Structures are given as C-alpha cells and as structure tokens.
Amino acid sequence: MTTVGILTGGGDCPGLNAVIRGAVRKLSNNNVETIGIMEGWRGMLEQMAMPLTVSNTDGILAEGGTILGTSRTNPYKEPDTAVPKIQETFAALGLDSLIAVGGDDTLGVANKLYLEHKLNTIGVPKTIDNDLSGTDVTFGFDTAINIAMEAIDRLHTTAKSHRRCVVVEIMGRHAGWITAFAGLAGAADVVLVPERNVSIEQVCDILKRNRADGQIYNMVAVSEGAVLASSDMVTQDGEVDEFGHVHLGGIAKNLAELIEKHTGYETRHVVLGHTQRGGKPTAFDRMLGTRYGIKAAELVLAKDFGKMVALHGNTIVGIPLADGVGETKVLTADFLAVLDEFHST
Ligand code: F6P
Q: ∠ at Cα 13 (10, 32), nearest 5°?
C-alpha cells in the first residue's frame, strides 16, 4: 500500500476541507492511505501528522478553515537545513507523495521540491483572492465574494438611514477580484482595485455626481491593495511574513477621512478583514474543492507528479506546477470595463 501526505499552507480558505475529504475518498477507494500533515510546511519540518480516513473526514465538508491547521512557514528561508528535514519526514512517515494545497507560496515550494529534489508533489490551488494564473477560479473566492457582498448589502441600509458615505475595505493583495465582484454585486458607487489608479478627486466627483442624481448616501468598495493616484497614504505596516509579503490594511480609514474632507459628507469606514475567509464554504466552493481533491488523488494514482490541478472552463485538468505559480492573475480588461461604466462622470 502506498501512503500519501496532504498539507494545507498559507492563509486559510473556505473549501480546504472539501479538498482533503475528496482526496481521502478517492485514495481510500483505491486502497491508498492518507496522512494529514499539520500546519502547512511546518508539519513537514517538525513531523507533525495525523491519520486521515473516510470516517474522520466525512463530516468536515461544511466546515470552514482546515482541520489540518495552516501556517506561512517557508522552508526555502533556510533550504540547507529545511530540505533534508522534509526528506526525513517523507521517509519517517513512509510517504510516496505529497499533495500541497495552497497559494503561490505553498505551491512554489512544492514545485521547487519536485524540480530540485525529485520529491513527488502535486499542487492544489487555493486563495480567496482568486489571483493564481494557472486556473480560472480558486475555491474560497465564491464564499469570500458572497460574504463581502452581503456585508455591503447590510451597510447600504445604515448608510442610507444616516445619509452617510461608507467605505468598505476588502481583501485582495495584488488583484481586485474580490472587490470588483463584491463591489459590483453590492452596487457600490465606486470600486477601487489595485489594477486601476484613481485619484481622490475622481472618487469624490463620482460620489457628488451620484448625489446630484438624487442618491442620498454613498458606498465605496476598496481593495486593501489599491493605490490612490498621487497619494502617499500608508496602507501597510512594516511587518513581512516568511515569504516577504507586507501586511496590508488601512486604506479604508485613510480614504474615508479624505472623502469627508473633500465632500463634506459624513463618512464611516469598515474593514471586513478575516470575516471574508471564515465560516462555511458555498456550494460552489464545496464542489470545486471536492473535484480538485479527487483530481489531485487521480494524479497521485497515475504517478503524474509535478502537476497542479486547475479549472479550465468547466473541466478539471492537471497542468505543470511551474505554469501555475509565479504569475499573478489580475482583473482582465472586460471586468475593468464594467467598473468603468459606473465610474464615468
Ligand atoms: O492571500 C489571502 C489573504 O487573505 C489576502 O487577501 C490578505 O492580504 C492576506 O491573506 C492576509 O493574511 P493574514 O491571514 O496573514 O493576515
């Protein structure tokens, strides 16, 4: 009998448990044992593991987060010591292969271990940000946009009652997918994304135009990673994670102050933060996670390593891990054109 490890790395995301359950089911149906590696790559460095079976994964489908825990541990911070530890864990746990579920960082490590050390890895793309280039959609995105849209729906009624402007800060480090979908679906007046540089004057012109058209309040959706043209506002702190990413946050507060100053409209800000990553996955994310998990197991069974599962159209495919990592998928021109329709003054 072969043994397969599975880990979840990077920020958690609704649908991770669906992937775990799907992979375990497919492997178990083929008499292959699965071991869960705890807390991402940290578990491979410290040999933290738990057995996974059909019975202990069957009830996890509706649960958010990951039953394995996660971390942003980067073995390539100190590869000389970390890689031998990972090789030791493979041997100690009797692993033939490892399914790594994660974003660009986690999958980048899986790719290097495959290319440089011939370790049998398979990747499953995950992020609420939906910014991985190799796949049309990442699971977690659908849940996040529905959470953010519902929050905006709720903010409309309070903003309207008080005749206020509300600025909502939405996750998405380098790409505005969540903000564009939730902002447009939530009928925000202005949707600010990292892909478009808009000035505070333009923002306020749109808000004033909408008030002149009879609107009595305003809603602004802004990506945590958006940049306001010719502004020096600070939207990150000095902290970086093990992969060198800064910690973003603060744009909504800054923007709300500027809007109030430029328009005179009473303005509040709300940071949705990690609520967008928490709770039950939508049916779409449960299904996509399940299909990804099954496909990852199929690649393991076929010994087709160094691959990442991906959604192309409506089909789940396996593509080289190297093609799936490294490049950020940003909002495409057709989505930006939809935003622009609501931004013209
Ligand atoms: O990459 C997913 C993401 O949720 C980003 O949208 C956000 O910037 C980041 O993770 C937050 O990370 P952390 O959980 O470490 O605060």
A: 80
d(CA 211, CA 100): 50
For atom 13 of ligand 1, which residue has the closest CA?
Answer: 11
101, 171, 223, 224: which to mutate for ligand 1, most atoms within 8 A of CB?
A: 171
Co-location of 184 and 249 in the same domain: yes
Domain encompassing residue 316: 3-139+281-324
- Are 134 and 173 contained in the same domain? no
Residue 224 alpha carbon to ligand 1 centre in Å: 10
Tens-digit pLDDT profile for residues 80-95:
999 999 999 999 999 9
pLDDT in tens, 101-117: 999 999 999 999 999 99
Active-site residue, 129 included? yes
* Cβ proximity of 249 and 271 under 8 Å: yes
Closest atom of ligand 1 to 72 CA is 15
Residue 1 predicted with pLDDT over 70 = no
Q: Mean pLDDT across the stretch 296-325?
A: 97
Q: Which two tokens stand for residue 243?
A: 């992969």
Same-domain check for residues 119 and 174: no
Question: How high is the pLDDT of residue 345?
Answer: 65
- Is 342 part of a structural domain of the chain? no
Count of domains forming the chain? 2
Q: Are residues 108 and 74 in the same domain?
A: yes
Note whether residue 344 is domain-resident: no
Q: Is the CB of 127 under 6 A from ligand 1?
A: yes
Mean pLDDT of the chain: 95
Question: What is the pLDDT, as a whole number, of residue 230?
Answer: 67
Nearest alpha carbon to residue 41 among 5, 65, 3 = 5
For residue 292, which amino acid is it? Y
User: Helix (H, G, I), strand (E, B), or coil: what is residue 48?
Assistant: coil
Query: Domain ends where: 245, 276, 307?
Result: 276
* Type of residue numbered 174: H
| Whole-number Å distance between alpha carbons of 97 and 90 | 8
pTM for this predicted structure: 0.95
Q: In this structure, are 157 and 262 located in the same domain? A: yes
Residues 153 and 130 in one domain: no
Q: Are residues 164 and 268 in the same domain?
A: yes
Inform me whether the pLDDT recorded for 98 exceeds 70: yes
